[in-house]
Design a protein that fits this description.
- The chain folds into two domains: 227 residues, P-loop containing nucleotide triphosphate hydrolases (Rossmann fold, 3-Layer(aba) Sandwich); 107 residues, Nucleic acid-binding proteins (OB fold (Dihydrolipoamide Acetyltransferase, E2P)).
- Strand 9 and strand 10 form a beta hairpin.
- It is of the alpha+beta class.
- Strands 6-7-8-3-9-10 form a six-stranded mixed sheet, with helices on both faces. A five-stranded antiparallel sheet has the order 17-21-18-19-20, with no helix packed on it.
- The protein contains eight helices and 24 strands.
- The longest helix is centred in the middle third of the chain and has 18 residues.
- Keywords: ATP-binding, Cell membrane, Membrane, Nucleotide-binding, Transport.
- This is ABC transporter ATP-binding protein.
- It comes from Phaeobacter gallaeciensis.
- One of its GO terms (cellular component) is ATP-binding cassette (ABC) transporter complex, substrate-binding subunit-containing.
- Pfam families: ABC_tran (PF00005), TOBE_2 (PF08402).
């Protein structure tokens, strides 16, 4: 396995890029440690696949370097980077048995047959497909085909990194949880460096120890699932992660006070910076409907089982709150209270409050 370093990485599909908007990837610096589980998370078009293709060697970046254990591999072709990939659609041979599919990457590299048999048996046990080993792949269900595709990526014990590109997209929703759990279990057992690319926050947050959130070619935050939820460094992270996402509210700063719709709101700590577009960020989980606070009107109530999402209007601005009960009437006049240590100011999208350490 290897530590992967991306240094001053940029990429444009144009021959002569002149403007930051010409770049699909804008100045990325990242370290992925040996043996870690990482996710690249973001919407379609944010640069995830471009970054994955650069790491794998399918693309050469316009600028910057890729290092594997401090060795520069920027200009090396894919076959010299020692990478295993699992794609959105299962890459297996339908005419081969499961056993032959799992053995193929090893046999193709001239590994001894005894070693092949040992590794195939080991991976088959991990994937719980021992009873299918002599079944032709054409007869497998879609989820089992993807299991075998994962197994082909994991069967080699000499790879630098295993990369997963939207591997559960074609899997039925009720099977996704099972395969996500299996993948997490596999990582804990083999401790390979794994990078998982997805637009699905549930997949990213349940698999990865560290999540890289991307927007429009930029990395806007790298952190644990808890860090991304509890303290988003950018409004995009707050909006994209969570269900429902963070309330992003228009605000102003007046003499050190944060004002939202004429109401003074206390935020988590000191306010940093000056100017820019200022907004207030607070997750619905930290907004409570109470007898005092910011006046609001109930617009809609959604009972989602474990709790209710109360959609309110403060003037012309929508504010959502999570409550234990759905006993709120549409049109009712209520008040909202924001939990101070979970309420933050943002300038031009970036966090602008700090807490003393």
């Amino acid at each position: 396995m290897a530590k992967i370093t991306l240094s001053n990485l940029r990429h444009s599909y144009l021959s002569n890029p002149t403007d930051p908007q010409d770049y699909a990837l804008k100045e990325i610096d990242l370290d992925w440690n040996d043996g870690g589980a990482y996710a690249l998370l973001g919407p379609s078009g944010c640069g995830k696949s471009t970054l994955l293709n650069i790491v794998s060697g399918l693309l050469t970046p316009s600028a910057g370097r890729i290092l594997f254990d401090d060795k520069d591999v920027t200009n090396l072709p894919p076959d010299q980077r020692n990478i295993a990939q699992v794609f959105q659609f299962p890459v297996i041979y339908d005419t081969m048995t499961v056993r032959e599919n799992l053995a193929f990457p090893l046999r193709n590299r001239g590994v001894a047959e005894a070693k092949i048999a040992e590794r195939v048996a080991e991976i088959a046990t991990m994937l719980e497909v021992e009873e299918m080993l002599d079944t032709r792949a054409a007869h497998l269900s879609p989820d089992n085909k993807q299991k075998i595709s994962m197994g082909r990526g994991l069967v080699r014990d000499d790879v630098n990194v295993v990369m997963f590109d939207e591997p559960l997209t074609v899997i039925d929703p009720h099977l996704k949880w099972k395969l996500r759990s299996k993948l997490k279990e596999l990582h804990q057992r083999v401790r390979a460096t794994m990078i998982y690319v997805t637009h699905d926050q549930t997949e990213a947050l349940t698999f990865a120890d560290q999540v890289v959130v991307m927007q429009e070619g930029e990395v806007v935050q790298v952190g644990t699932p808890v860090e991304l939820f509890e303290r988003p460094q950018h409004t995009f992270v707050g909006h994209f992660i969570g269900s429902p996402g963070m309330n992003i509210l228009p605000a102003s700063v007046d003499d050190g006070r944060v004002i939202f719709n004429g109401n003074s709101v206390r935020v988590e700590g000191g306010i940093t910076g000056e100017g820019g577009v200022t907004e207030l960020g607070v997750r619905p989980e930290f907004v409570s409907v109470s007898d005092t606070g910011i006046p609001a009107r109930v617009r809609k109530v959604s009972d989602v089982g474990r709790h209710a999402v109360i959609e309110t209007m403060v003037g012309d601005t929508r504010v959502r709150a999570v409550a234990e009960t759905a006993n709120f009437e549409q049109g009712a006049e209520v008040h909202l209270a924001f939990q101070q240590d979970q309420t933050r100011l943002y300038r031009d999208g970036w966090i602008a409050t700090e807490v003393a350490s």
